[in-house]
Amino acid sequence: MNDAVQSIALPNSLDALAIGVGAISGALHARRRHMDVMGILVVAFCAALGGGVIRDILLVSGPPVFLTSPVFLIYAAVGATIGWLFSRYASRATILMEVIDGLFIGVWVLVGATKALGNGLGFGSAILVAVITATGGGVLRDLFSGEQVSLLLPGQWLAAAALMGALTFTSIFWTTGDLYLAEIMCIVVASGIRMVSSAFDLHTPMPMDLSRVLARTKA
Amino acid sequence: MPEVYTGVTALPTWTLYLAVIVGGVAGATYAARRGFDVIGVLALSVTTGLGGLLLRDILLGRGPIVLRDNAFIWSAVFAAVVGFFFAGYIARFDRPLLAMEALAMGLLATVGADSALRAGLGALPAIVVGTIVATAGPLFRDILGGDAPQLLRPGVFLGVIALGGSALFVGLDAWTKQPLLSQIVVIVAVFATRIVAILWDWETKPADDLSDRMWSYWNRRTESER
After folding, report:
1. B25 min Cα distance to partner chain A (Å)
2. pLDDT value at position B7?
3. Could you read off the pLDDT of B80-89 as tens digits, one per residue?
4. Whose CA is closest to A161, among A199, A192, A138, A184?
5. Residue B85 CA to chain centroid, in angstroms?
6. Helix pair angle (A123-144, B70-92), 10° resolution
7. B128 alpha carbon, distance to own chain's centre
8. What pLDDT shows up at residue A115?
9. What number is the ipTM of this complex?
10. Probe site for chain A from B34, B37, B147 (most A CB atoms < 10 A)
11. Radius of gyration of the CA atoms of chain B, in A
12. How far is B204 from B150, CA to CA, in rounded Å?
């Protein structure tokens, strides 16, 4: 069954857009922290390509994609340069970039999930790999800037949206076996949740300590 | 499901699942205490529980078993669910969790060292791999949580025990040629040392600097010779 799963190939222009936007936001992040050229480059590259690199290391599927198809490097470099030299223009387009980012989170989830399934992994692992592909870049960015990893902190649905998308993808693909439907629904769900959450400022659920809840009901 | 080598010599694989659950629960409660959200709890449970085994397979250059065998992921997710709902209860059972973590650490150290030996590595690399497998989970947890890693700070007597356990395993295995026996001995030894360290508050100290002492020793020698 898993042989049928081909990693989807995005049109080059979409790849360029997604990676470029990731690199711009990484570069802006580094700029705000007064890093030098090298810092901006590293953080931008991590933000843009980090998730894919972690994914390829986990899947042991040869060198990471950005090394085998170097055009990804060029996209990231262009994005980093824009964020570095034209930060004022770039930061004016923050909302546009957030929208693009939100749209692409579903795509990254999809790419990760199909690649994991194509490598013969089970559904549970595919969900994990998909979420890591979508969010790994942000984690690396925060670690390299020496900050609290913002992904883990309570806030808007980012990784949670990716997780929902991955769950949708695997459950639809598992029950119906329809790859096309699963792909569409994955993007719709992940990006939809991301957009709705940032539009209405919805926050992720916090751990609930049942021991305290039960103690309260007893009292 | 392709045939995969889990690295447990003779102990059944479910012992590893248990180790993952114990590590995962520790990671999840840490996340809940730090005020992380549901993703934080999940992420720290997965990294703390699976980090060591994942790193082992990456170091040995093969596909991570924790991704091939889905039971590992579900164990970590189970741990996350426990941490998400019952962090308060678990905080009350602090000591039993520490004891179970000690058992898991011994198991992971032996499994890591053993799989390195079976992959054809030498004794010293096997000790290093065993130590890494036993300690990587809490290390990842601290890095992601934004703490200075407990493993590296002076105080908690942890990494030294993992190192000693791996070394003991490699030695015993070479001497007795009985992996199961050596594994059990090492797990017991690691557990006992860790418990004693907790009960008697053994602590590691910051690194000493011997250079001054060496100089004063040398000066005293030369003075007395004069």
Report:
1. 13
2. 54
3. 999 888 888 8
4. A192
5. 25
6. 60
7. 12
8. 87
9. 0.84
10. B37
11. 20
12. 11
Q: Is A201 left (phi over 0), alpha (psi -120 to 50) or beta?
A: left
Residue pair A125/B70 in contact (Cβ under 8 Å)? The answer is: yes
Q: Is residue A32 part of a domain?
A: yes
Phi, psi of A158 (to 5 degrees): -115, -70
* Predicted confidence band of residue B52 (pLDDT cuts 50, 70, 90): very high
Inspect the interface and report whether the beta carbons of B88 and A122 lie closer than 8 Å: no
| Residues present in chain B in total | 226
Per-chain mean pLDDT for chain B = 86
User: B interface mutation test: which of A117, A128, A193 has the most B CBs within 10 A?
Assistant: A128
- Measured between CB atoms, which of B42, B58, B73 is closest to A124? B73
Q: What is the tens place of the pLDDT at every residue in A132-186?
A: 999 999 899 999 988 888 888 888 888 899 999 999 999 998 888 788 888 888 9
> What residues of B are in contact with residue A115 (Cβ under 8 Å)?
none
The C-alpha of A62 sits at a distance from chain B's nearest C-alpha, in angstroms, of 11
Chain A, chain B: beta-carbon pairs less than 8 Å apart: 105
Taking residues B44-52, what's their average pLDDT?
Answer: 93
Q: Is residue A209 part of a domain?
A: no
DSSP secondary structure, B154-207, as one string: SSS--HHHHHHHHHHHHHHHHHH--HHHHHHHHHHHHHHHHHHHHHTT----PP
Which tokens go with B103? 């058992």
Q: Residue A210: inside a domain, yes or no?
A: no
Residue A35: which domain range? 9-204
Residues of B within an 8 Å Cβ radius of A: 2, 31-32, 34-44, 46, 54, 58, 61-64, 66-68, 70, 73-74, 77, 83-89, 92, 143-146
Q: B36: which chain A residues are within 8 Å (Cβ-Cβ)?
A: 152-154, 207
What percentage of residues in chain A have a pLDDT greater than 90?
20
B64/A60 Cβ within 8 A: yes
Q: Do B28 and B83 touch, CB atoms closer than 8 A?
A: yes
Is the pLDDT at B1 greater than 50? The verdict is no
Q: How many domains does chain A have?
A: 1
Range name among A2-11, A52-61, B194-203 with the lowest pLDDT average: A2-11
Q: A56: which 2 tokens?
A: 């390829």
CB contact (8 A) between residue B37 and residue A204: yes
Kindly state whether residue A47 falls inside one of the protein's structural domains. yes
C-alpha to C-alpha distance for B226 and B211, rounded to whole angstroms: 23
pTM of the prediction?
0.85
B92 vs A211: CB contact, 8 Å cut-off?
Answer: yes
Dist. CA A33–CA A25, nearest whole Å: 13
Give the integer Cα–Cα distance in Å for A48 and A68.
16
Q: Sort out which chain A residues have CB atoms less than 8 A from B85's CB and list them.
A: 207-210
